[in-house]
Write a structure and sequence with these properties.
Chains C, E: InterPro entries: AAA+_ATPase, ABC_ATPase_HisP-typ, ABC_transporter-like_ATP-bd, ABC_transporter-like_CS, MetN_ABC_transporter-like, P-loop_NTPase. Chains C, E: It is found in: Cell membrane. Chains C, E: Keywords: Amino-acid transport, ATP-binding, Cell membrane, Membrane, Nucleotide-binding, Transport. Chains C, E: It is a peripheral membrane protein. The complex is a heteropentamer, with 1 copy of chain A (235 residues), 2 copies of chain B (214 residues) and 2 copies of chain C (242 residues). Chain A is globular and about 55 Å long. Chain A has 235 residues and is of the alpha/beta class. Chain A starts with 5 loop residues before the first strand and ends in a 9-residue tail after the last helix. Chain A is built from 8 helices and 16 strands. Chain B has 214 residues and is mainly alpha-helical. Chain B has one domain: MetI-like (MetI-like fold, Orthogonal Bundle). The longest helix of chain B has 35 residues. Chain C is of the alpha/beta class. Chain C has one domain: Rossmann fold (3-Layer(aba) Sandwich), CATH 3.40.50. Helices cover 38% and strands 25% of the residues of chain C. Chain C contains 9 helices and 10 strands. In chain C, helix 3 packs parallel to helix 5, helix 4 packs across helix 5 and helix 5 packs parallel to helix 6. Chain C is globular, with a radius of gyration of 18 Å. The N and C termini of chain C lie far apart (36 Å). Classes of the chains: A alpha/beta (235), B mainly alpha (214), C alpha/beta (242). Chains B and D meet through helix 3, helix 4, helix 7 and helix 10 of B and helix 3, helix 4, helix 7, helix 8 and helix 9 of D. Bound molecules: adenosine-5'-triphosphate (2 copies) and magnesium ion (MG) (2 copies). One adenosine-5'-triphosphate binds next to strand 2 and helix 1 of chain C.
Chain lengths: 235, 214, 242, 214, 242
């Protein structure tokens, strides 16, 4: 049920810098502030519910909330279940590794190695594109990173900005930027997911997102979380 | 290895999670106990068909991982039109799960009353319902408390499964702190200690009650 | 008042009572003896249908006992039973134990039931124990509560199944005293016991069972002093030697 | 609501997960039983200090959610130099967890042997070790089987927690199928049925054994 | 051979034996009687240190029993004990029950121990039961296995704690017969029992206990026929009446 007063949306707040708990342990991040801005443009208040990443779309379908904004890549498979807003972010794939143990400069270096990914992410799908890689799927990206530091795995494949955010607090780790694996373009576009039958909400969100871009809020947020000017603007 | 400062600095956040854990446990326990008593009585005295249905329910629940059950209940409820908010949905899924265990607790307690007790009641001319109400159940309640307390402690622990699907309980918050501070172990140890503070007295109480019953 | 006719009882494929017939009159006192496993308890429990017989007929107080046709629960109101293991209700005081039957089954008012319960407790010498729970009582006291509890239903027949064999040797007499007094007052009773003294003093008839059958029956002096059966003799000599 | 075709089409994948679940359970159970016997005996007969240490271990484990323990063990062991590959690490963390439960099973079994048995052994002139070896333990083993079988069933279920350490067990594979087919309920139901097929015979066996012991 | 001197035993704050002294000679047969809770079992269990006394001295076979100084386990080898609850080992056959003590404690070769165990089983009339486990035996048979098990250690003194009071009334004589034979062979023994017949036939001395003290002691005829104490008289009258 869509409540008019609030925009109920779900995310998995274990994904720095998109959604995570700040020092006061309040959920924050690029997605969180973006959704607040979008909700404001829609004349609503943002109401966030936490959910494990691989259960997000299920919960959306179960109407536990009405939208999902969780650094979620728009894929054809997901588009079969839900509608996405216009893309609000473009990302490359990052490969995070421990330079003391491995030297990885390109995706092909992962052959014969064990790679950690978060279950249900595009990172998981992409890592499996390389033949000869053993993929370990973790319920959240912290656990994968933890195991990378423990040395059980050789690399973590995940969205590039997330990897860099992580490496900034884990100086032993390094990240390389990847745009293609096995000839496949890895550039990803993130979207806000809504239920297929919720066409009104989709168009409302699209309109609000365009307004957020138009008035410069988007660029401000981007600089705040990614320390650069946005290379891509939603349209 | 363990940074106590991380635990200490984030104690309010951990305690907020613990509060969720506790309210969730208490609410679920209440529903599970009522449902468990009902299911247990129906299973023992409800006749063949109802007895068989409740038996299947009890055995299916007891044979399946709680995590899986919670996922099923949690995600299936909306499909049958029960679109509950997060907290009530979690309560329902835990209660559905624990009612089966608690039904067995009640059954075991009733069966532990010596046969001579109901025979004595029958020999006075009581019927089944009278014997149950005046002789068996009053004796059952004392025996049921220790295992119920045990189920309560188990439920405190099993609420951690809800972190996997949705709720910001103690374990979930510990993981969030882990993510933010890049120190995974310390908040988990902190959470473990808080779980112990919640479960140990309950388990000890259960043991004391058990000794008293004997 | 009680006619048992060709009674059989099997547990699964094990036949435990193999055709027992006897009858007893109002105010008669019958003692049942026999080796362990001979079926004494089973026979007694068949009489008030706590163990439904497999075959045979029981007539009580002129009426044929048939489940479905007559009300087994009414039958049980008329037959009191005292068990070897007492089976007093541990969650109730002595007074509540005695008053429960009338209150629940006969729908007697609580006040009236408790007044009578006090009288019965006095009768079995336990007035001072009325507010105690069984856990605080000796075996002899618990068994006397059990007797008072049975009496509270005003039974026409009392069944006793080894009422003293779980009781400390020096407390047995407390219970036997109460039973002797009951007999003196004219209660009809069937008592399974190996207390020879009690049997000699009280019994109108002694029935000796072995392997699910009555093998001997008669007055105490007949059975104890001139047993007809080898088996009875050997059993008696063992019990007396012990 | 439940699409049986999804379960059927993905049965090999589910069964592959079930195989992981099963091997993990068996391996963990072996280690947990050996460790549990050891911890139990040390707790009962190891003297004051060792008794207290093992008691703390047992109580701490029993009072903390298994999920949390597995996270701690799995992610903390490498920091103390125990850098095991995934499967052995999962086995170790489950064994560490279940050893505590199994230690209590052994303790309960030893305590259930009537005191008269050891008194009879002592009255023959046996010392504690001889009484334990020739009189108590042989009687314990029969009594220990039903609860051990129960722990085995519980372990089958608790292996579902290892999806948090990236093991592709039955539940994990079910969730993958759910993500791929956009139908969560069906593969979860399929997984539940497979869990039941694994746990029900074990629990039934445990009950039969229990009846035999009585 | 046994001197018990001012023995005390407390459980927590409850003093159960309040200063008991007696001594007995080789081949003497002593019967202990007294009401439930008077401390008979506790006294007997103190003698072989299964219940360590709180105070007092026990001298056995000329040696003062002091833990630390003498070997309590050696003492126990010399003192056989038979319990009310039999306490036979349920996982072993009758033969293994009897042979276990010698094999484990005396390190006797299995073969030799089993040969002697067979002889002892024959002595208690159980040759045909050698390969049966206790679960398949009657109470009387189990208790006879327990006696044979104790005898296998060649004890100098046998303690019996109400050996017949958990046994079906018609099987009691089996056990008493064995005990009478043992006495006839000259075994030194202390028997807690309320079997008057056995006491009269076998006892050299009857000791009567009440509330943790010996209140009367003498030959069976002295104690049973001319008790000096009120308490003894009242107890005996109750037991005999029962
Ligand atoms: N509920 C039951 N199920 C199966 N067998 C039973 C049951 N009750 C009694 N029996 C068997 O029936 C036989 C007779 O038992 P019963 O208790 O009537 O004997 P008893 O003469 O009262 O013996 P005791 O003197 O030991 O009380 C025994 O072999 C017993 O094992
Ligand atoms: N292990 C124990 N702990 C506490 N109290 C005990 C213990 N053993 C015996 N007692 C108490 O000591 C007193 C004497 O018990 P004991 O068993 O020696 O008496 P008894 O003369 O053998 O009685 P019975 O004829 O009932 O066997 C009783 O009050 C009993 O409750
Ligand atoms: Mg009987
Ligand atoms: Mg005693």
């Amino acid at each position: 049920k869509t409540q008019t007063g609030t925009l109920n949306w779900g995310t998995d707040p274990t994904y720095q810098p998109f959604e995570y708990a700040d020092a006061a342990n309040k959920p924050t991040g690029f997605d969180v502030e973006l959704m607040e801005a979008i909700a404001a443009k829609m004349g609503r208040t943002s109401n966030l519910t936490s959910e494990a990443f691989d259960g997000l779309l299920l919960a959306l379908e179960g109407k536990k909330f009405d939208a999902v904004c969780a650094a979620m890549t728009i894929t054809p498979l997901r588009e079969k279940e839900v509608s996405f807003s216009i893309p609000y972010y473009r990302s490359d794939m990052g490969i995070m590794y421990n330079p003391a143990k491995n030297n990885i400069t390109k995706p092909e270096d992962l052959v014969g190695k064990t790679v950690g990914v978060q279950v249900g992410t595009t990172g998981e799908i992409d890592a499996k594109l390389i033949t000869g890689v053993k993929v370990n799927s973790y319920p959240d990206i912290q656990l994968a990173t933890q195991d990378l530091e423990n040395g059980r795995i050789d690399a973590v494949v995940n969205d590039y900005p997330v990897c860099t955010a992580y490496a900034s607090t884990h100086p032993t780790l390094k990240v390389i930027d990847t745009t293609s694996i096995a000839g496949q373009d890895l550039t990803q576009l993130y979207g806000i997911a809504v239920r297929k039958d919720d066409t009104q909400l989709k168009s409302d969100i699209d309109a609000a997102l365009r307004k957020v871009v138009a008035d410069g809020t988007y660029a401000t947020l981007y600089r705040k979380y990614f320390f650069a000017d946005p290379p891509y603007l939603p349209k | 290895m363990i940074k106590w400062s991380i635990i200490f600095d984030n104690l309010p956040f951990l305690l907020a999670g613990a509060w969720t854990t506790l309210t969730l446990t208490v609410a679920s326990m209440i529903f599970a106990t009522v449902a468990g008593l009902l299911v247990g009585l129906l299973n023992m005295f409800g006749g063949k068909v109802i007895g068989a249905i409740t038996r299947v329910y009890i055995e299916a629940i007891r044979g399946t991982p709680a995590l899986l059950l919670i996922l099923i209940v949690y995600y299936a409820l909306p499909r049958i039109g029960l679109n509950l908010p997060q907290f009530p949905a979690a309560v329902v899924s835990l209660a559905v799960c624990y009612a089966a265990y608690i039904a067995e607790v009640f059954r075991a307690a009733v069966e532990s009353i010596p046969k001579g007790q109901s025979e004595a009641a029958f020999s006075l001319g009581m019927n089944r319902a009278q014997a149950l109400r005046h002789v068996i159940l009053p004796q059952t309640f004392r025996r049921v408390l220790p295992p119920l307390a045990n189920e309560f402690a188990a439920l405190i622990k099993d609420t951690s499964l809800v972190s996997v699907i949705a709720m910001q309980d103690l374990l979930f918050n510990a993981k969030i702190i882990g993510a933010r501070t890049a120190n995974f172990l310390s908040p988990l140890i902190g959470a473990a200690l808080i779980y112990l503070i919640m479960t140990t007295p309950v388990m000890q109480w259960s043991r004391n009650l058990e000794k008293k019953v004997e | 008042m009680l006619v048992v006719d060709d009674l059989h009882k099997s547990f699964g494929s094990l036949e435990v009572i193999k055709g027992v017939s006897f009858d007893m009159d109002f105010k008669e006192r019958l003692v049942l003896m026999g080796p362990s496993g001979s079926g004494k308890s089973t026979l007694v429990r068949c009489i008030n249908w706590i163990e439904p017989p497999s075959a045979g007929r029981i007539t009580f107080d002129g009426k044929l006992v048939e489940p479905g046709k007559c009300d087994i629960r009414r039958l049980r109101e008329d037959i009191g039973m005292v068990f070897q293991q007492f089976n007093v209700f541990p969650h109730l005081t002595a007074l509540q134990n005695v008053a429960l039957g009338p209150i629940v089954v006969k729908k007697t008012a609580r006040k009236a039931a408790e007044v009578e319960a006090m009288e019965l407790l006095a009768k079995v010498g336990l007035s001072h124990r009325a507010d105690h729970k069984p856990g605080q009582m000796s075996g002899g006291e618990q068994q006397r509560v059990a007797i008072a509890r049975a009496l509270a239903m005003h039974p026409k027949l009392m069944l006793f199944d080894e009422p003293t064999s779980s009781i400390d040797v020096e407390l047995i007499h407390e219970v036997l005293d109460v039973m002797v007094r009951l007999a003196d007052e004219g209660m009809t009773m069937i008592v399974v016991t190996h207390e020879m003294g009690f049997a000699k003093e009280v019994a109108d008839r002694v029935i000796f069972m072995d392997q699910g059958l009555i093998i001997e029956s008669g007055s105490p002096s007949e059975v104890f002093e001139h047993p007809q059966q080898e088996r009875t003799l050997s059993f008696l000599s063992k019990v007396l030697l012990a």
